[in-house]
């Protein structure tokens, strides 16, 4: 606008006098004028073509003095590029948590601010709310980093834009607050768009911190009794195992087992495996494995069964035979579901004592235990599970 006024003035003066103006006075401060001269090609052409002397100070004529009072020429506070040695604030918003977060680092210490969303807020307006807070509360030179392309675009244009009322009242309210925040700022600011969740170094570190702040979901911890009940419904541990694992009284653990329609029929209501093969120190410490025959399965009547002695979890697969290759197939299925056990206990059947199974277990790093040569006993847990 100023470049057009200067060009029109020069053209009019040439029409009247036939010469270029000797002096052009610009109603602004010198540093502001220098900034405009560096960034506006139109202004450069309007001023530098005629060879006129440029002066920057207030003019005496009343119209120009009136225009100066109304700040009709204002240098924008927004910078196109990130500001060096400025505070960098990272903003984010969570749709589920209904919160917006701002985090920044001062003197090597990370600080943060959480903002609760209004009922009518959307994810985008929450992101915008976080940026407004940063612009208003962080008074020094500021870089604002957001992963919302929409918010970055709004902040980039709001300072020099004319804002008209929109149907979304909440959005219009925030746009007016944003415009006010940019006008009230004394120091410069820059807005930076960053793609979310790409890395956790540099700018990504602050972005990840902001994301974690709005992703936190506070869950009420379950009571030990409820945890034990849920675990038993899946793994069917015995009463003694429940008591030890979840630190509940043995009598309470027995009540849970008695209430289970599956376990209440075993060992007088105490569950599977009471006082047989004490539990190991951790899961997948020791498995027992065997084969049972179910005639009604027809061709797949050889059911290979493995049980984790830690939690009594059972996994069975029907096979066409009970040779070494079928044992391998069963174990691969077990490894996919339960993980790899440290030790496996079996009887002394031909498939389990074969070199093929010995080599297979050695490859997987599993110790093979065969109890009492030529005897199928000492497999109490797996036999009872049959």
TrEMBL record:
GO terms for molecular function: RNA stem-loop binding; RNA-directed DNA polymerase activity; RNA-DNA hybrid ribonuclease activity; zinc ion binding. Keywords: Endonuclease, Hydrolase, Metal-binding, Nuclease, Nucleotidyltransferase, RNA-directed DNA polymerase, Transferase, Zinc, Zinc-finger. Residues 223-264 form the Integrase-type domain. It comes from the Eukaryota. Its EC number is 2.7.7.49. GO terms for biological process: DNA integration. Gene3D superfamilies: 1.10.10.200, Ribonuclease H-like superfamily/Ribonuclease H. Residues 274-386 form the Integrase catalytic domain. Residues 83-219 form the RNase H type-1 domain. Pfam families: Integrase_Zn, RNase_H, rve. PANTHER family: ENDOGENOUS RETROVIRUS GROUP K MEMBER POL PROTEIN (PTHR41694), RNA-DIRECTED DNA POLYMERASE-RELATED (PTHR41694:SF3). This is RNA-directed DNA polymerase. It comes from Chloebia gouldiae (Gouldian finch). The lineage of its organism: Eukaryota, Metazoa, Chordata, Craniata, Vertebrata.
């Amino acid at each position: 606008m100023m470049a057009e006024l200067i060009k029109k003035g020069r053209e009019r003066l040439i029409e009247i006098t036939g010469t270029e103006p000797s002096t052009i006075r610009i109603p602004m401060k010198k540093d502001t004028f220098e900034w405009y001269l560096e960034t506006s090609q139109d202004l450069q052409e309007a001023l530098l073509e005629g060879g006129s002397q440029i002066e920057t100070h207030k003019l005496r004529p009343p119209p120009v003095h009136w225009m100066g009072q109304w700040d009709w020429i204002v240098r924008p506070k927004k910078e196109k590029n990130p500001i060096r040695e400025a505070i960098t604030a990272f903003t984010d918003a969570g749709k589920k948590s209904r919160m917006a977060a701002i985090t920044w680092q001062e003197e090597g210490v990370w600080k943060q601010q959480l903002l609760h969303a209004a009922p009518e807020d959307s994810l985008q307006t929450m992101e915008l709310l976080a940026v407004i807070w940063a612009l208003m509360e962080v008074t020094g030179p500021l870089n604002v980093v957001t992963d919302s392309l929409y918010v970055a675009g709004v902040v980039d244009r709001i300072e020099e834009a004319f804002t008209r009322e929109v149907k979304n009242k909440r959005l219009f309210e925030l746009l007016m607050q944003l415009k006010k925040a940019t006008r009230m700022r004394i120091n410069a600011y820059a807005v930076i768009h960053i793609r979310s969740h790409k890395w956790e170094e540099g700018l990504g570190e602050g972005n990840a911190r902001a994301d974690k702040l709005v992703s936190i979901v506070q869950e009420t911890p379950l009571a030990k009794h409820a945890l034990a009940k849920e675990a038993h419904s899946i793994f069917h541990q015995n009463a003694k195992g429940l008591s030890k694992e979840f630190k509940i009284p043995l009598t309470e653990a027995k009540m849970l087992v008695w209430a289970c329609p599956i376990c209440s029929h075993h060992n007088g209501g105490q569950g599977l495996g009471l006082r047989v093969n004490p539990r190991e120190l951790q899961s997948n410490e020791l498995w027992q494995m065997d084969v049972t025959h179910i005639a009604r399965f027809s061709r797949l009547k050889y059911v290979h069964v493995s049980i984790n002695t830690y939690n009594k979890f059972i996994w069975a697969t029907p096979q066409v035979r009970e040779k070494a290759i079928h044992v391998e197939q069963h174990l691969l299925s077990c490894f996919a579901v339960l993980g790899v056990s440290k030790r496996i206990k079996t009887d002394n059947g031909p498939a389990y004592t074969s070199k093929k199974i010995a080599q297979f277990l050695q490859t997987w790093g599993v110790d093979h235990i065969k109890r009492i040569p030529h005897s199928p006993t000492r497999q109490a847990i797996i036999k009872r599970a049959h």
